[in-house]
Amino acid sequence: MSMICYYLQADDETLQKFQSGNANPFTDMGDASIDIDKAWHTIHYILTGEVWDVPDDDILAQLVLGGEPINDEDFGYGPMRLLTKETVSQLADALEKWDEDAFRENFHMEDLTANEIYPTTGMDEEEEFFQYVWENFDVLKKFIKETSEKDLNVLTFLA
After folding, report:
1. Number of domains composing the chain
2. What is the DSSP string of 6-58?
3. Residue 13: which residues within 8 A CB-CB, separation 6 or more?
4. Which CATH number characterizes residue 124's domain?
5. pLDDT band at residue 2, thresholds of 50, 70 and 90?
6. pTM of the full predicted structure?
7. Fewer beta carbons under 10 A from the terminal one: N or C of the chain?
8. Whether the Cβ atoms of residue 45 and residue 54 lie closer than 8 Å to each other
9. DSSP three-state, residue 99
10. Bridge pairing between strands 33-35 and 5-10
């Protein structure tokens, strides 16, 4: 089983193509896309302290598990979701404070394992796992900042 989280920048025209089902994320993502591999659930937990919940009052909860479904098409683990330009801008601002030290302060392997946060198994070497998650988070943080600067939406899904 593999659950990988994908993100792609979308202008309004691209968003409409995906909403109408006239685009395939596996062939039409282009260069303006990233994936954060299997680190998505750990990132969500570190930023929010939530296992699966997406509190409305926490903008950081929108980053991984938030957004509104754009249609009913299931890409393996649910539909593609939209993070609007406004949400992307708010996320970019909120992520500014999350440097490696802040991220590490919230990284506790025993909590990840106890809460069955994907993809921990309880047997991962902590520092190696931290670096894996941090590197994926750093890519995502830069992607969100760049997308905000371009005033674009983000489409995200798990597959």
Report:
1. 1
2. EEEEE-HHHHHHHHTT---TTTS-TTSEEE-TT-HHHHHHHHHS-SS---TT-
3. none
4. 3.40.1760.10
5. confident
6. 0.93
7. N
8. no
9. coil
10. antiparallel
